[in-house]
Structure formats: C-alpha cells, structure tokens
Amino acid sequence: MSLIVQKFGGSSVANAERVFNVAGIVTDTYKKGNDVVVVVSAQGDTTDDFIEKANEINTEPSKREMDVLLSAGEQISMSLLAMAIEKLGYPVVSLTGWQAGFHTSSAYGGARIKRVIPDRIRKELDKKNIVIVAGFQGINRYQDITTLGRGGSDTSAVAIASVMHADLCQIYTDVEGVYTADPRKVEGARKLSEISYDEMLELATLGAQVLNNRSVEMAKKYNIELEVLSSLTKKPGTIVKEAAKMEKMLISGVAKDTNVARISIVGVPDRPGLAFKIFSKLAAKDVNVDIILQSIGRDGTKDISFTVTKDKAKEAVETLNEYVEVVGAARVVHEDNVAKVSIVGAGMESHPGIAADMFEALYDAQINIQMISTSEIKISVLINACDADAAVSAIHDKFFSTDNV
Amino acid sequence: MSLIVQKFGGSSVANAERVFNVAGIVTDTYKKGNDVVVVVSAQGDTTDDFIEKANEINTEPSKREMDVLLSAGEQISMSLLAMAIEKLGYPVVSLTGWQAGFHTSSAYGGARIKRVIPDRIRKELDKKNIVIVAGFQGINRYQDITTLGRGGSDTSAVAIASVMHADLCQIYTDVEGVYTADPRKVEGARKLSEISYDEMLELATLGAQVLNNRSVEMAKKYNIELEVLSSLTKKPGTIVKEAAKMEKMLISGVAKDTNVARISIVGVPDRPGLAFKIFSKLAAKDVNVDIILQSIGRDGTKDISFTVTKDKAKEAVETLNEYVEVVGAARVVHEDNVAKVSIVGAGMESHPGIAADMFEALYDAQINIQMISTSEIKISVLINACDADAAVSAIHDKFFSTDNV
C-alpha cells in the first residue's frame, strides 16, 4: 500500500463531466489499495471570474480580501469533486487549506508555505477516506486566509507529499508530460519518460510552464518523485526525479521564452565597482536580471547589457536613467523585440561539443545570436523575437532528429 | 458610541451596485462613531446556483460537502463588500464563520449555534476596523464547516449582538418592516413601528417570512432589540422588542399560511389513550402537528383532525394508514386545499371580543371556518385555500380600517 498525492489543475475539473473524469482517476488509485490525497485547483475560469467580479467593485482591493475571495474557488471545486466521488460510492472528505494544516507566511497573494501539519489528513486517511485538499491556500499567523499565488496548487501537492513522505506525487495537467520542445510548435517534439529536478527547473524558468518552479524546488529538496501527466489521456507521463537515479540524456529539451527584454547601458566608464553599483540599484527595485554581457567599448568605456522580464523593463530603464549621469555613462538602450532560446540537459557538462552544435544549428538557419549565457546544464541565446520559433525548430532538429538518436 | 450589528440578506448584495449601497449604509453608521459588525448572506442566487451545480454531479450529496460548497457563498459576498468599503476609504476586515468564532452543533445543513467566541471580532473592532462576518455558517467540534440552514444569517447576526451586548441589531431586508398584512396583497396594510418578540414569533410561524424564527427566539432570550428595515429605502423600519417596553396594540397583524394540509382519522373508537398513541407515532416520524380538533362522532367513535405542513402530509397519511386497523378506526382522510389565516396581537389577552370580531368578519365575507385554534396572542382559523386572500382582507379591514383606529 502506497501513499499517493494527486494534483488536478483547474482545467481538469472545469465542468461536471471533467469532475467525474477526475473522480474516476482518484477512485481507480484508491481501489488498488492506496491511500490517496487529492489536491485540487479552482474550476476552469473561476479565478479569473472572481478577479473580474472584484474589479467591478474595486480595481485595487486589499490583497487580504482578494485572498478571501479567491480561496472560495477551491472550496467550490473540492466539494464538487467530493460529491462526485460520493456518487461513485467511495468514502471521501474535502478539507480547506486551514483544515488541512497549511500554515504560510503572511504575504497575501503570494504566501510561502511555512509548514504543513497533516494531522487531520492523516486522521481521515486512517478512516480510509479519500482526502481532497484545497490547493493554493493556507492560513497565516493571524489566522487569515492566504493564497500561494498562481500555480500554487502544485506547491501544495508537493508540500503534502513531502511532509507525509508520499511514495509518488502525480501532477495531472492538460499536457501528457514534459516534452523536448513545445509539441504544438515543433514537429517531432517528444515526450520525455524522465527528467531530473534541475533540468525541470531550468525548463520551467525558460517558459515551459508545465510545473510551478517552487514545487519542483521543494520536490528536489525533499526528494519527492513527481509525475507530470494528463488527466484526459490515460498514458504514463514524465517522471521528475533525482538525476543520480536516471540515465542521463544529453539534452532533455529546447525551450523558448519571449517574455524578455534587453537593456544596455552604453559608454560606462571603465572604473571598478560600477557594474556592482548598477546591479545593486536594480536589485533594490526588485528587478531580476538574467543574462549579463559586458563588452569592451572604446575610449576607456564599456557597454553593459542584460535581460529582464518584459514587465520589469520599464522600471529597469527608469532606474538606470536616473543613474546614467551619476556614473558618467552615455545612455540607456532598451530592446523589447527579443527572445531567449535555451537547451537544457544534465548530460551536457561532460560533452563540450553541445554549445558548438547549438550555434551551428543557428548559423545554418541564418539566425544571429545577440547574447549567450551558459550554466552547467543549460545554454541560452538571445535572438530576435521573430527568429524564435525557427531557432527552436533548428536546434530541436539538430539534437532530436531521428538521425541523431 | 454604540455597537451596532447590521445584517444584509442576499438580495441586498446581489450585484456591484447593491454592494456599494450596503457599503454606504455601513460606513454611514461607522462615521457616526459606532462600532459596526456586519453580517452578510451569499449574493442573490448564489446558493441556488451552487445547489444546481451540486445536483449536476450528485442529487444526494452528503450534507457535509454541501456545507463546504454553500459556505463559499458568504466568503464571496463578504470579501466583495469589504472591497467596496475599502474603495470608500474605510478600514475593514472580513471574517468567515470559523474566524469569527461561530461554534455550532454537528448537524450539517441545519446546525445550531452553540457559542460565539468573539475574540477576533473584538480585536478587529479595537483596531477601529469595520468587521464583516459571514452569516449562516460556523464550524462544529470536528473543525468541519457547517451551515445553519436557510435564514440562518439572521440568527448569526442576533448571536453576535447577544454575545457582544450590542445596542441594536438591524436586519436589512427587501421589505421596509413588519406589516399588519402582506402589503402586496392587502390594500391598507400598514407598517408597524414596533412589535413584541412573541407577536413576531407568531407572525413568522404563520408565514410572514420577514425574520427567521430562531433569530427572534434568540433576540427574546437575550433581550436584543431588533430593527427590520429595507436596505433600499432609507426609512425607519419596525423595532422588535420586549412587550413590556411597548404600547400594546390590540392586533399587530394578519397572516396567511397556505403551506398546510388537513388530515383526519375518521371513526376512532372512543377509548382513552388512542389520541396519545396516534400523535406519538407522528412525533416519532418527526411530523409536527399544528391545529388539532377532536369531534364527537357517532356510535362510540370520534374523528380526530389536525394540520401539518404540506411536505409532511404524505408521511403523516402513510404513518396513520399503517395504524388505522390497529386502533380500529375507519379511514384516513387528507385535504390539501386549505389555508390557515391568523391574527396576532399581544393585546388580545385582555380583550375577549377579538375572536368574535374575527369570526364576524369571516361570516360577513361568507367564508366557512373548518377548524379554530387559539393561543394567548393568536387566533388561527383553517379555511378553504381559495378563500384565504379574501379572508385576510376581510379580517384586516375589520381591525385596521381607518374607522377602527
């Protein structure tokens, strides 16, 4: 007998038919003699509907009250799922975030799970109940309802799996697993049977929005095996686990991220400490910088370029404009029309030719590289936004075309 | 400075415009220096929508899960009202049933409030917050969400007013107060400026659905002054208070109840104890009997007639049919097409002519009386359902026509 945590996203429970589909998956798992804890998100568009309802009244409601409102969404979906499981004839109980013991930080709208006290969940499992838990929510030290922010239900599921030492944590979603590239865009994209936590993290960061990043970090920390799979097709998905336990693939995926802007400060005097000061200013404004490139300029000056997410670009430019005179730089340049394309693979550390292969693929496709960034398991390039899809295809072909397998 | 509890029903917060109307009433009260606790129901049709959503999945869901679902309704309305009050620039916090300290019996779907521990409410009032509380809900000893059943928000409001010794508990609704008869049906129906708890209880029982009965009982027990008034017109409503504190009116109202059926057991042998046994059988099936009439029959038998609510009629008939042979009675007769019309008035105790006046009014209108029941402050008659409206008008005219005032 195993303890299995199953998480279902909003689209998996969007209507009565889908709720029954999920009830079927859950009860099938339970029938096999497993203890089952189900984490569920709000139905389909509930969250967006609630936000709209709130905005009719107040476009800037307090985050506390927004959390009260949004958390009603899972309360609805979890009770409906419980009713469907009752209808199928199985014992079930649904629990809100506070009932399930989710204690979070105080930050309304984006709280972090501080601890899960699963006494109630355990008690219900002991009674042989299927336990449904509201994802995405908890309570803070003031006994106020908090939400974990978008994608938080994944984290809820992994947190339960961690604290209860679950044997498996299944994340049901609307895709069949993790792919070598976006299957809607890249012909020949293949589903991976397994991937390491680190690779998954890099892919998630790079815009392959299959799993919430915090959930993967937590799974890695507590060594919880995740399975990403579809609630609609009944096929095995992708297992996310420790790299040591798996056969390393050279490259596990190609991802594209268009939510990126390039910012350059041109003509920065070549004095020590200026770069540090520039990036401190940005950090103080909560602007996360990704790829950084420093070029040797002319006349004792240099150019510093970096990328940020698009929504932070304006703030970054404003911050630097205030600073450009102070440091004696020439000007700040801002370019939105860029994309980041990356390959991720735990195997690339030991294969130095990977970067060259990637650049060759881009050269063959006549795509110009603006910036390059590498880590142990990732190589990213910044290119024109309009080249992004072609770049992904070219790189994917290079590494995954049948000739190379 | 006073502590005022204000309760708003579902129609009062049905949409954004109405939510702002309520926010206006609440903040006007707060501005005058009062502490304000607001109890709010689910918006408009939310409860019915939820029931429909549930029934799509399971027509017989567990009451526990139904309560989880329904209680989301007030969570939505209370957060939206809080956002509207924030928008108007006032400090506010919304609390669910468990946050507000509502502890109830375990009976899902129809729980009774066992105690209210208002520590959190008090703390928020001390911080000068307007406090919004979800009506209709609480938690039981298992830390599960319960609901109080329909109309339970009134009870929530009175319970808070009682435990916190509020100076006034205002029940905002879609009528302007308590009337001498249904103003939509009876020309000349007048709003009462005050009414006693007992009269209100009799009127509520008789189908004048202005206030939930349990809430009036509780207000009476803890001597909380209630005001029933409209959230849409800004007129004074009806004060419900101790009889001793008010000028007694002879008659405070005329009410009609068509949710009633008459059942007769014909030819019951005239032996002691049979009536007792018959009504014990009904009590065991949870059938509440209202007016009882025992006639002297012929040949040493008698007929026993009584009224029940329509939904219990079938069960009562079945119960008695099983029993009719055992007691040696002839048969059970069932009549649905009846109505109960009643007058209520704390003053009637000391005025023996009231009953005669009522019967005279019915006689003048050529309406036949089937059964009569009286209490200290109420006289009810059972008549044909088709005569009910005419009976109410005739009786109302008799007691309230301008000639008699």
| Pair with the biggest interface | A-B, 37 and 38 residues
Number of strands of chain A: 20
Indicate the structural class of chain A.
Answer: alpha/beta
- The quaternary organization reads as homodimer
Largest sheet of chain A: 8 strands, mixed
Shape of chain A: globular
Average pLDDT confidence of chain A is 90
Q: How many DSSP H or I helices of chain A?
A: 11
Which strand-content bin applies to the residues of chain A?
A: 25-35%
What is the straight-line distance between the termini of chain A?
Answer: 38 Å
Work out the helicity level of chain A.
25-40%
Contiguous uncertain segments of 5+ residues of chain A: none
Secondary structure layout:
Two copies of one chain form a homodimer.
Chain A: E1 3-8, H1 16-31, E2 35-40, H2 46-57, H3 63-87, E3 92-95, E4 102-104, E5 113-116, H4 119-126, E6 130-134, E7 137-139, E8 145-147, H5 152-163, E9 168-173, E10 194-196, H6 197-205, H7 213-222, E11 226-230, E12 238-241, E13 253-257, E14 261-269, H8 274-284, E15 292-296, E16 301-308, H9 310-327, E17 331-335, E18 338-344, H10 354-364, E19 371-375, E20 378-384, H11 388-400
Parallel strand pairs in A: 1-2, 1-9, 2-6, 3-6, 9-11, 10-12
Antiparallel strand pairs in A: 4-5, 7-8, 11-12, 13-18, 14-16, 14-17, 15-16, 18-20, 19-20
Helix pairs in contact in A: 1-3, 2-3, 5-7, 6-7, 8-9, 10-11
